[in-house]
Amino acid sequence: MMSKTTITTLKTTLLRVPWAGPPPPNGIMPPIAREFLVLEVGTSGGITGMGYLQPLTGGLETLDACIKELIAPKVLGRDATEVEAIWQSLWASTYWLGRAGIALFAISALDIALWDIVGKRAGLPLFRLWGAAHSSVPAYGSGCWRGLGRDGMIERARHFTAQGLGAIKMQVAHIRPWREDVKNVHAMRDALGPDIEIMVDVNMGWDAGTAIQAGHHLDACDIYWLEEPVVCEDFDAYARIAAALKTRVVGGESHFTRFDMRPFFRVPATPILQPDPMRGGLTEMRKVAAVADTFGLKIAPHCFHELCVHVTASISNASYLEYMDWNDDIWVTPVVPKQGLVTPSEAPGHGLAFKPEILRACRVGGHETVQQR
After folding, report:
1. Residue among 306, 295, 302 at smallest CA distance from 353
2. CA–CA distance, 53 with 210 (Å, rounded to integer)
3. Do 105 and 200 lie in a common domain?
4. Which residues of the chain fall short of a pLDDT of 50?
5. Which one of 261, 276, 299, 313 counts the least CB within 10 Å of its CB?
């Protein structure tokens, strides 16, 4: 029997959006345009939920094909409020090809859209639906890219602190030698003074030996954390680096689901984890947070503050949100920190909507799948 929340359509829109300003000189992302997959899930009662992906390094057509072939046939006709059941069935049905990568990204887009429907059906923003723990969450300004040079990174950091943010994140590795990176961090500390927190992101750009050698110098700068110092698979290196340094060592943005993060829980040397909502959806991020809380670990999600604020505002072990301002121009109502804090929208669901003119002008593909009757 069809209910008002029966899933009847899945529509994707692939976007290639020009950068609003200069592209980020981070040595990682292609400096062409921002890419998004927007997934709209329609229901028989007229409620539409929206999920989205920003893959950062291409793959839009591949993600779209995965949704069309592996996701849509298994969810059309199901009740959108069965979020957990749908997640589990998609996890099982894509297990041979999935457990990470494209399949998990596709599941995540759907999961975000389903929670949007549930929130709209209940008339509640997601953070209240999940039991609000905070009215707002502190944020740090992210995007002091290595390619900006020393003075450019400091200028970017001051842009964030002038907005009232009490913490910033700067990038090291990939572009220049580590000794120059150390000098940059010292210069940043001298420029900002002792009261601004400084996060340092390696983006998996060092090996353990380099991270320890550089980290001893960075300890003297009183940085807040050293992020992703080595490739994400090397859990032993994470533990070695953490044992050698005074500074917190954090990570998790490149890991998929709580299963992939299991070594972080078994050896809780990484006190703050950074799950990405595109690597398991909101359902999995909340589970990661719950498991982390069991081991005394905190959560500081990777990017997508406009979405992740609903998770962090609903958990007891929230740390910082990463405020990346590079997408403020795409939303009908941008989520911008005020006095260093991000406040979740009170609109039902996640409260996010792409500007219609961007959906029209920047569309480069997509498809619609309709339930067959």
Report:
1. 306
2. 33
3. no
4. none
5. 276
